[in-house]
Each structure stands twice: as structure tokens, then as C-alpha cells.
């Protein structure tokens, strides 16, 4: 029993010293939602449900789909969904399947809505709401922790953004690259023209530079595209490490306590063995 107890304590100590890894992004996490303030003046829930079912059915085969649905009173609702190109079709289907319920919860009865998850998004609008949620500017942004000392950070990001803008021109509207220590990605709405896509990504880059210029990661969403990036290490720069240092001290202290208990248990076990001898 004593040996088993020591083994458990030593195992716990070992796992405490393992480096912690950043959790993987969950493609079903809500990023943002935008709901029109105006609500339906007449019941369109059945038409909207039918539109949702079309989108879900298509998401098993496609990562982008646009359609319209006409109601009994000839009111037309248009809608589309798009998944990130770097997730599987199964993940795309799972992601899109969540959107109708989220829309009903977050934007109940709105004449237009847009719900963005990490791995997919959809939007719908009635004829009377066409363009209400459209914008050539910023829809949503998230900026990560800043670097404390710039070092070569600014030059690194300048090069990474240039690589992204060049790469999106020769893509089908999705481009991702690991540039040195930067993982950077861009995606445009699938039916965007190449020139429009490129301009949209360039606009998003400008926003990233202006709004998240010193951030170690960021997500920028514009009406027809989004960009995101994350940095592991920056030559000549350092993170704001107060929180990380405190966590390391706490973990180290806990590990030391476990290790002490393990050693005491082993010594106690040895003494008891000697007594029996």
C-alpha cells in the first residue's frame, strides 16, 4: 500500500511539472452575433425554419451555400452559411446544425441576423431588411494580450501580413500559413470576386494593425471576410509574465509539497521495514 501511495504521489508530481498547452480552439464557440432591431410584422417562423433546414442539409456536402425561401405571402428570406475551409465536412455539419437554435435564442424574431461561431457562420435577411446588417467596416474584433517590449514584433507582423495579402490573391478565398512563429489565416465569403476578397482582407489587416497592433493574437471580422493570427514566440519581445510567474510559483509549491509527502512516505516505509527485520 505504501509503495502504491508513493507511486501515485510521484506521478502527480510528474504531471504537475509537464508544460501546460493552450487549449485547441472549439469551432462551436460563439464569437459574436448581430441582430436587427426590427422584428417580424407577420409570422415568418415557418419560412425561416424551412430556410434553416435547407442550410443544415447542404452543410453535410458543402462548406458554403446560399439560398432563398418564399413564404405563403410571397415574402422572401435569403440566407447563407459558410464554414472555415480547414475543418472537416462532418465538423461543418455539426457547426451549422447549432446555428438555428442559437439564432432563435439570440435573435428571436429579428428580420435579419448574423451568428458567427469559431468554425462557421450564417446570416439571413428578409427583403425589407436587405443591407441592414451589411457594413464595409468592422463587424467584430478580439485582441489578445499585448507584448510588453516590441523588439522585432512589429517587423515580424508586417512580414506576416504581407505574406497573407499576397497568398489570398492566389487562393480560392481561403489562405492560411505558418510564417516563422506566426500562424495567420484569412477567409472571404466564397462567392466574392478575387479583387473584392483581396481588398476585404487588406481592410481587415489595416484594422488589425490599428486596433490590435501590439497583440499576440487577434480576430478581425468584416462583412465579407475575416482574418486571425496567433504568435508563439517573438524574437526580441516578451509577454507580460506576471500572471505566468505567479502560476509557476503556485504549481512549483504544490509540486514541492507532493514531492515532500512522497519522500516522507518512502522513508517511513523503509523504517517500518527495518523494524520488522
Q: Tally the helices: what do you get?
A: 6
| Count of individual beta strands | 12
The 3D shape can be described as globular
Main β-sheet, spatial strand arrangement: 1-4-5-3-2
Radius of gyration: 26 Å
Q: Catalogue the unreliable spans.
A: 1-24, 237-251
CATH class designation of the largest domain: Alpha Beta
Percent of residues in helices comes to 40-55%
CATH architectural category of the largest domain: 2-Layer Sandwich
Mean pLDDT: 80
As a percent range, the share of strand residues is 25-35%
- CATH superfamily membership of the largest domain: Gnk2 domain, C-X8-C-X2-C motif
Terminal Cα span: 19 Å
CATH topology of the largest domain: Killer Toxin P4, Chain A
- Sheet bearing the most strands, described? 5 strands, antiparallel
The total domain count is 3
H/E order of the elements? HEHEEHEEEEHEEHEEEH
Helix/strand/pairing class, anyone?
A: alpha+beta
What do you see in this structure?
- With 277 residues, the protein is an alpha+beta fold.
- The protein folds into three domains: 30-129, Killer Toxin P4, Chain A; 138-231, Gnk2 domain, C-X8-C-X2-C motif (Killer Toxin P4, Chain A); 245-270.
- Helices cover 43% and strands 26% of the residues.
- The protein has helices spanning 2-17, 45-58, 89-106, 153-169, 194-211, 242-276; strands spanning 30-35, 64-70, 76-83, 112-117, 120-126, 138-143, 147-149, 174-179, 182-188, 217-222, 225-231, 238-239.
- The strands form three sheets. It has a five-stranded antiparallel sheet, with helices on one face. Strands 6-10-11-9-8 form a five-stranded antiparallel sheet, covered by helices on one side. Strands 7-12 form a two-stranded antiparallel ribbon.
- A hairpin with a 2-residue loop joins strand 4 (112-117) and strand 5.
- Helix 1 (2-17) packs antiparallel against helix 6 (242-276), helix 2 (45-58) runs antiparallel to helix 3 (89-106) and helix 4 (153-169) runs antiparallel to helix 5 (194-211).
- The protein starts with a helix and ends with a helix.
- The model is unreliable at 1-24 and 237-251 (pLDDT under 50).
